[in-house]
Amino acid sequence: MNITRRELMRTAALTPGVALANTGEPMPKGKADACIFLWLGGGAAHIDTFDPKRRGDGKKVAGSYYDSIPTAVRDVKLTEHLAGTAKVLDRCALVRTLSHNIVSEHGAATNLVHTGRMPSGTIQYPSIGSIVTRELGTKSDKVPPYVVMGYPNIARDPGYLGAKYGYIYLTQIETGPNGFMRPPDVDLNREDRRETLLGQMRDLYAKRYPGDQTVASQAAISATGFRMAGPAFLNVFDLARESKTLRESYGGEFGQRCLLARRLVQAGVRFVEVSFNLNFLNGTGWDTHNEGQVNQHLLIRDLDQAFATLVADLEKNRMLDSTLVVIATEFGRPAAFDAGGGRGHHAEVFSAVLAGGGLRTGQAIGTTDELGMKAVDRKISVPDLHATIHCALGIDPGKNLFAGERPVPITDKGVPVRELFV
Amino acid sequence: MLIPVCLFAAATAQANPALTGPVRVEILENVPAKDPLDLSAASVTEIYQEPAFAFVRTPVKFSPNAFALDRSSPFVLRATYERSLPGGAYRFRMRARGLAVLSIDGKEVARSKAQPANTSGDDPVPPPPVRLEGNLRPAPYPHQDVLHSAELAAGRHTFVLTAVIGGKGLYPSPGELAVSLSRGEVLERLLGPDDAPFLTDSDWERLAAAMEARHRAADVTRRRETGKEVAAAWKARHEQVRTTLAAQPGPVAPSTQAPVWNAIDRFVGARLDAEKLTPTGLTSDLEFLRRLTLDTTGLIPTPAEVRGFLADAPAKRRGNAIARLLKSDSWADHWVSYWQDVLAENPGILKPDLNNTGPFRWWMHQSFTDGIPFDRFAAELVSMDGSLHQGAPAAFAQSTLNDSPMAAKADILAQAFLGQRMACARCHDAPFHPFRQKDLFSLAGMLAGKDLSVTKTSTVPMTEGARKPAVNVTLKPGEPVAQAWPFPSLASHADPNLPSKASLLSRAQVAALIIAPENTRFAQVIVNRVWKRYLGTGIVEPADDWSRAKPSNAELLNYLAREFAMNGYDLKHLARMIFESHAYQRKPVEDPAAEMGKPVKYFAGPARRKMTAEQLVDSLHASVGKDLNVEEMNLNPVGDRPPTQFLNMGKPERSWQMTALSNERDRPALALPIAQSVSDVLTTYGWRQSRQNAVTSRDDAASPMQTLILANGILGTRIARLSDDSYFTGLLLKDMPLSSVINEMFLRLLSRPASAEETRIFTALLKDGYAGRRVAGAASVDNVRKSDTRVSWSNHLSAEATLIRMEEEKKLRMGDQPTARLAAQFREKFEDALWSVVNSPEFVVIP
After folding, report:
1. CATH number, residue B53
2. Is residue B2 a part of any domain in this protein?
3. Which of B518, B534, B556 is the last residue of a domain?
4. Which domains does chain A have, with CATH numbers?
């Protein structure tokens, strides 16, 4: 018997055709080939953003903190600080009944929303960014496939897929992606001198161990690295190449990150995660306990400006159908206010937004009760959201990946939201 | 199944002879939480001495097994001191983070307030500490200075400081507890003898470092003393094992055509002869030294070590180096990295989640430092006793957010020590292993000390009409499984009465069965792990999964395992045998794929290895003489939260001491930028910031990112930078011909002299400007990077905290401040030379 065990497992797990491995139903398939994942870390209040309800008073009376406004989609409202988004909402689909059960710990919930799974202790699950990278592969050999604007953390890691499917990251636009920009004191002359010297050292070393495969491959990969940090990629980070008007229309730091995300996707990056972590705008970021509530509208407006501009900009560049934009967060917040006038955590239902990606946009999926505390029709699980994203990108959410020889389905029985597919 | 034995009852405290000085200190435990200064019912559990009234840490409390134990929280530190003073006016300053009382001659003269526990995340950042007159060290937030002025009569006076440490919601550490005094002078000395240090930053930092070193050494002495009886009992057990095994015939070393330096070479050689393979040639002396030094210490050799090695007679060099390096303190550092992976050590610095364990790294380091026999190491780990937060084996037991922690532990232990990989059995019967779900849960039950049932998530759900999984699920969720030992074929019974006592009998039974001498699998798995670590390939592969394993050389495996067991399960004895073999000292196999991989499989030569992430980062720093210099692994430096939420993991000196930086919240103020720059390199080279599962072979394949992060990243910039703390700055300031400088650079970075061609290349680069490189009169600057300790969890959401950290991050990118003592143009050229050598593939590939 010459079949490897891995092959055997594959055969055993595969079902014929393009049917979803989990359900046997045919898998819907979107047209997107890249994803921009906007991350609202801290737990954005759905009731103050994408799922408005009756007004509360910030004290005893539970409810939204803002008025609601009509949108480009009939009968679907947003809160008043999302005026830009309201105008492009027909390019978006709201997922209003996303649900899980981790409310106590940001880290754990963040990990769940990024990996789609609870930790098992037997393997470490990869982030959705790593999975998309693994499944879609690189689009261009000049750019890395997975870029994070934010801090490196476990939730974003490639887990069992291995370092190959990890990300490069930047924490500030001006400093560029970590490891790709020359140190500030090294000018072109010095860089040239360095690489010449290194080239000589590399050659001398390889010459001393002529038949050694490891030495040869190590020397080769060292040279490849420097090619990757070439101008084709680094120029992407130069936002000054865009018109001033466009740059300004994106707004502040988060907006500039979104503009950079568009440029990265244009250059061939598959998955860009953009973190909105400007907590100093209101003192808490999206984690609006207590007084964080008072200036929450500043965050929402920033998000609104950046997101609405991104959608319009992608459309203008004819990239919206092929680029799925996701707004996600680790959980939502309840309608009632805490003693300090803010909100606690709420994961029973909360919202996510999908835009573009060739989806059937202009609809709100799921309905919550009068205060946005419970789903009244159906719940969408985190694996379901992941399955939807994967399907939009043409990835079978039930396909097995392999942790060593162990088959692990891409999502934990996630079922895509079918109405979103044409 | 608790054994009703009080293992850790406090013996009557005796003065610790390892800590001497004029100030007598007592630690009192079991003080009432409400009124911790009521010491009427407290017990004195520790007595020792300090040189003056400055306290930044207290001795670790040890169990008879030498496990760190928690003190009661709060506990009280009481310092007593008597001395003569000239009469006159004095001013005393008591500095404390929490409640403390100073009394003079029995009368209370100063009292600070208790530190409130904090649960907030959006406090304001406190103002910068107030600089005191005379440039005295300011009280770090939130310490309180309480002043007391008094006329003292000439003669003897008694000073007593009573300080409450820890308590509900607080970290049990003293902070910067101190008393200083002055007689009107601006400079204050710490209360103590006449030559006590001043309360200045420089004196304080020196004193704190000295105190840390002194306590560390004293803790070692103390735990060895406390653990003497247990150690002797293990020794007796090992003598018995030796006698038993000696009576049984061992494998006979065959003859061979291959070079033979010790018995290992006979077993390896016979196999090579049978496979018609020719061993590779011997490494050069210097290649050997670099390889051996990395394998024993995790570091590359220093030029002094290289010179000492070359000064030995050629016939004795290698043997002497082996003997010397096996005694290195870094032996423990290098082994901890390995077992952190294998045992899934996964502590977090922020509220534990995602399968976090406690920091049992500390206990592992202590065990490897103390040369604890490996069977004892395994048994003690299984006991899971001692302090969770101080990293005793109890820290292994924790597994947060895992709904069946002991099932996870059972899998880890079985893989680590028995080569039984049971992970599949967590949810279903293992399709390719001889385990059923029941086996894992029955072992998990023994570790838990009670019957467990399969948890809901530990299963494969069956959907009606859906495809049938390729696996069998034989247990239903909720189905109870009786405790049982699942490997009767390895060992069926063993006396649980081991020299190291465990508090849970069923764990003692598991430990005894794992390490039973009859269970030869245990010794085989460990020798195979060690062999694989040193030769790159195991005799059995995969080393953590023996279910279908066929050893490539069964006689060698048996021989090593028997030697290991007969010599007290001593890792160093085993390592020495391997290092002394010709098999280890040979050149690597050039093409691992040639001849179907047989030369590697049968050890014609070792597999070519690259440095691990830790070896790389530690060697880079050592080679330029710089410390890691990262922040303390701690998000609550002010101590107003308990260790259950925020663990202080200390300031790393070696890479293994790093932790995941846990910024899942993505908040700039929670970033530790310097540590992040080190973590970036480590993770790119295969280190795991989160070790949620056990791993024996890392995924550390070469990638272009590895090149880039080292070439352009912050850490690499720091390594190449000629700042005043760089070894090479010092070297270039010396009178020395350029050729010697170049040679020294090669010796230091690549453990070999520069070749003629290399000398030519670097001379051409550096000769212009070499003569005038030194800048007369320029001063050296301190390069210690300090992060603002006012930023903590309590205020990390504020704009100010965010800006402080972002500013630090920006500054960091500029790298260490370049020395002013070297002319800038020359300095930059030399930096580029250094850069090219450390980025050369030769640095990371092990000879």
Report:
1. 2.60.120
2. no
3. B518
4. 26-70+86-181+229-420 (3.40.720.10)
Give me A166's structure tokens: 């990890």
Counted across chains A and B, CB pairs separated by less than 8 A come out at 282
In whole angstroms, how far apart are CA A181 and each of A191, B388, B723? 11, 42, 21
Which one of A105, A175, A224 has the shortest CB-CB distance to B353? A105
Which has more pLDDT, B278 or A11? Answer: B278
Residue A18: pLDDT over 60: no
**Segment holding A184, helix H or strand E:** none
Between CA B585 and CA B680 the distance in angstroms is: 33
Q: Is A21 in contact with B401 (Cβ distance < 8 A)?
A: no
pLDDT digits (tens, 9 = 90+) for A184-239: 889 999 999 999 999 999 999 999 999 899 999 888 888 888 877 878 888 999 99
B836 with A183: Cβ contact below 8 A: no
- Which of B393, B392, B402, B399 lies closest to B356, judged by CA? B399
Query: Does residue B565 sit in the same domain as residue B652?
Result: no
Tell me what pLDDT residue B470 has: 62
Give this prediction's pTM: 0.92
Q: Tokens 């893989």 appear where?
A: B415
Instruction: Specify whether B317 is located in the same domain as B287.
Output: yes
Contact yes or no for B514/B378 (Cβ under 8 A): yes
Q: Report if residue B577 sits inside a domain.
A: yes
Same structural domain, B673 and B622: yes
How confident is the model at residue B4, as a pLDDT? 39
The interaxial angle of helices B361-369 and B374-383, nearest 10 deg, is 160
Give a yes or no: residue B12 inside a domain.
no
pLDDT attached to residue A284: 84
ipTM of the complex: 0.91
Rg (CA), chain B: 29
Phi, psi of B674 (to 5 degrees): -70, -45
Optimal mutation site among B667, B706, B718, B826, interface A, most CBs of chain A within 10 A: B667
Q: What residues of chain A lie within 8 A of the CB of B465, using their CB?
A: 24
Residue B10 has pLDDT above 60, yes or no: no
Range of the domain at B294: 234-331+523-601
The rounded distance, in Å, linking the Cα atoms of A42 and A110 is: 9
Does position B375 have pLDDT exceeding 90, yes or no?
yes
B505 CB burial (10 A radius; 0-12, 13-18, 19+): middle
